Amino acid sequence: MLDDFIWRALLGGLGVALAAGPLGAFVVWRRMAYFGDTLAHSGLLGVAVGVLAGVDEGLGVLAVCLATALLLVLLERSRRLATDTLLGILAHSALSLGLVGLALLETVRVDLSSYLFGDILAVGMRDLAWIWGGGLAALALLAAIWRPLLAATVHEELARVEGVPVFAVRLAFMLLIALVVAVAMKVVGVLLITSLLIIPAATARHFARSPERMAVLGSGFGALAVGGGLAASLHLDTPAGPSIVVCAALLFALAFAVPTRAR
């Protein structure tokens, strides 16, 4: 019989996988993997901000991720630098600021490894409420903008001609990614968050014939990765967060082994 902390870890991981699958599909379609990395790196700065402000660290991470997404949108509109350059500057600046900020907190001891690689086995009931509440809110908002976001993803100029508020939809999507990054940080950590967004969605792409099917399959493969990674972590005594990502990568590799006709 499994201990309570294993069930909490499994429920937390499934909550993240459920939200990451559909969002990850759009991340893959829109080639925004580096954007997810940038938000994930800014999460460590959010931890430092939360500790300094004396608020819940999850709220600090969410606030900084949202601010980073807004800042990126504003900088993109100025068109002074290429997007990949902006992402690189923001990602490494935020990560370094977070590390420096935490180092200056001499009276507070922070376990950096749990933030960098996740600590899913330490998920509590409060964390579960945060993960499932944030994840379901992200899915509800994604459902509300699904059609215009899909139209803008397929052909942005045509969507704009048809009256789709492309800028507002893009901004909303970026904020949704920020929300999911803040939710997923406890499960897989800053350095591995983007992998849970991208790898299951990329695996689902081999089998999906419609955007909706890819979104559902993305959540399914993410759930399999969470279950398999936790099982491997328990039996092999390996870190849970990296084990989940390795399991997701194995599923992706197996997808390539399936004959094209079978897909």
Automatic annotation (TrEMBL):
InterPro entries per UniProt: ABC_BtuC-like, ABC_TroCD
Location of the protein in the cell: Cell inner membrane; Cell membrane
Keywords: Cell inner membrane, Cell membrane, Ion transport, Membrane, Transmembrane, Transmembrane helix, Transport, Zinc, Zinc transport
Main location: membrane
Stretches that traverse the bilayer: 6-27, 59-75, 87-108, 128-146, 167-184, 190-208, 215-234, 240-258
Cited Gene3D superfamilies: ABC transporter involved in vitamin B12 uptake, BtuC
GO BP: any one term: zinc ion transport
One GO CC annotation: ATP-binding cassette (ABC) transporter complex
Membrane topology of this protein: Multi-pass membrane protein
Entry-linked PANTHER family: ABC-TRANSPORTER METAL-BINDING PROTEIN, HIGH-AFFINITY ZINC UPTAKE SYSTEM MEMBRANE PROTEIN ZNUB
Function of the molecule: Involved in the high-affinity zinc uptake transport system.
Family designation: Belongs to the ABC-3 integral membrane protein family.
Protein name: High-affinity zinc uptake system membrane protein ZnuB
Organism phylogeny: Bacteria, Pseudomonadati, Pseudomonadota, Gammaproteobacteria, Candidatus Competibacteraceae
